[in-house]
Amino acid sequence: MVGDGSRSGRASTRSRHAAVVYNPTKVDLRKLRKAVEKAEADAGWGRTRWLATSETDAGQAVTREAVEKGAAVVIAAGGDGTVRAVAQGLRDTSVPITLLPAGTGNLLARNLDIDLANLDACIAAAFTGDERTVDVGIAEITREDHSAEEHVFLVMAGLGLDAKMIAKTNPKLKKAVGWLAYVDAGMRAIPELSPVRLRYRLDDGGERPLTAHTLIVGNCGSLPGGILLLPDAKPDDGILDIAALKPRGRFGWVRVWNKIAWENGVLRKSAAGRRIIDLTADVRDVAYFRGRRLRATLESPQEFQLDGDEFGTVTAIDCTTDAGGLRVKIPA
């Protein structure tokens, strides 16, 4: 009887298969296929389906195709844009995603403490890993022509310097030095930056005015380089964390940088550092809010970004969170 059950279990496992949605410009396909084929064989799964992203499909359509064909898990092999697109394709399904970081930021993987250097462990997670749920940010954006679009984000959405920095990033420099290319873009964006004026409503509260150089709406808080932009953000708490950067005067940006890089990124990591924070005056150049929904109407059209991708200019945003909306397979 035991032997019959074992054979039945193996047969059931072989009937399952994974799908890989990959960005052909980001991955070494030959190396990746070899590693995935080994992992699927070790786990006793069926043959993996392979689906490439394209200029016309960042991954949403092929992910839905993979689900329709019965994929038990979808491996997102690419940068943050590929991960975001796969997550959007998995909305309203119970199929989990596995992260195979191959981009510049790899922001969700970093915020989930996944070892970016261990390719084999990341791949094995699809077949034998643990599972957790994370929230999915939903951004409804309004264009200048009054048309509306809905997109998901997993890490951060942003207006102002944040979005201009993304728009000004040099692709060749990004490929050469990675996330440091954003620093170069930010330095070039600051001189031409003007404050963003808007009116916002948080949850069921009243409408309030706000003037800021940058507005960030986040599901996660960490950025490359040890920068903790949103110190209270958690990917699975059902809450959006919002930061408004409002540098004042000649040294405003210095105080902003000190807040997010030194205070958040260094001092918060130790008990002694947190005591120092408690004893110092709060930096008025950075304001934090938290809520389940943020609606904002802009005085003039502004550039907008989602998880590091440009999304053009918008005149209004309505951000909410789908708590526990995405299942993620992580290394055991």
Structure commentary:
By secondary structure, this protein is α+β, with helices and mostly antiparallel strands. The chain folds into two domains: 2-128, 3-Layer(aba) Sandwich (Rossmann fold), CATH 3.40.50; 137-324, Tumour Suppressor Smad4 (Sandwich), CATH 2.60.200. It has eleven helices and 16 strands. It has helices at 2-14, 29-43, 60-68, 80-89, 107-111, 119-128, 161-168, 171-177, 180-189, 252-263, 271-279; strands spanning 18-22, 49-52, 73-78, 97-101, 130-142, 148-153, 156-160, 196-202, 208-212, 214-218, 222-223, 227-228, 240-245, 286-291, 293-306, 309-330. Strands 1, 2, 3, 4, 5, 6, 7, 8, 9, 10, 13, 14, 15 and 16 form a 14-stranded mixed beta sheet that branches. Strands 11-12 form a two-stranded antiparallel sheet. Strand 5 and strand 6 (148-153) form a beta hairpin. Helix 3 crosses helix 4 (80-89). The longest helix has 15 residues, at 29-43. It is elongated. The relative contact order is 0.15. Residues 1-11 and 176-182 have low confidence and may be disordered.
